[in-house]
């Protein structure tokens, strides 16, 4: 082969290699973003379920305007699923914190995708 053909072959291999590396990076970033969105959606669903518990009377299995004693088990919520693992912490009778840790590692490639949701006493305006 001539020098021009070898040069074109080498350039084509380099361009293909860069394209594949860029595609892999974009796929990984997409997976991280999708996992972050899923953890946030799960945390919001858990927060909604916790608010239902908060507002429901004790006779119906709720908290009667308190989060005291609330656990994931009382909400029939699994501690982990395909998106990540979740913890629910009762701060006081009127506030809880929900932490979610995803299954994908974030941009740092060492820490999982994390999200925290806090719920406090709702303000109802008549």
From TrEMBL:
Which key words are in the record?
Membrane, Transmembrane, Transmembrane helix
Q: Which domain of life is it from?
A: Bacteria
Annotated membrane-spanning segments are: 6-27
- Protein name per UniProt: Type 4 fimbrial biogenesis protein PilX N-terminal domain-containing protein
Q: Which organism is it from?
A: Handelsmanbacteria sp. (strain RIFCSPLOWO2_12_FULL_64_10)
């Amino acid at each position: 082969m001539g020098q021009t053909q070898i040069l074109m072959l080498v350039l084509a291999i380099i361009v293909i290699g860069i394209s594949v590396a860029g595609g892999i990076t974009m796929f990984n970033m997409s997976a991280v973003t999708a996992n972050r969105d899923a953890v946030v959606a799960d945390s919001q669903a858990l927060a909604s379920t916790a608010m239902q518990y908060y507002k429901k009377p004790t006779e119906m299995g709720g908290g009667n305007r308190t989060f005291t004693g609330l656990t994931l088990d009382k909400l029939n919520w699994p501690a982990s699923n395909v998106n990540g693992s979740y913890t629910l912490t009762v701060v006081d009778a009127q506030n809880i914190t929900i932490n979610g840790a995803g299954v994908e590692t974030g941009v740092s490639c060492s820490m999982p995708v994390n999200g925290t949701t806090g719920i406090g006493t709702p303000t109802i305006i008549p």
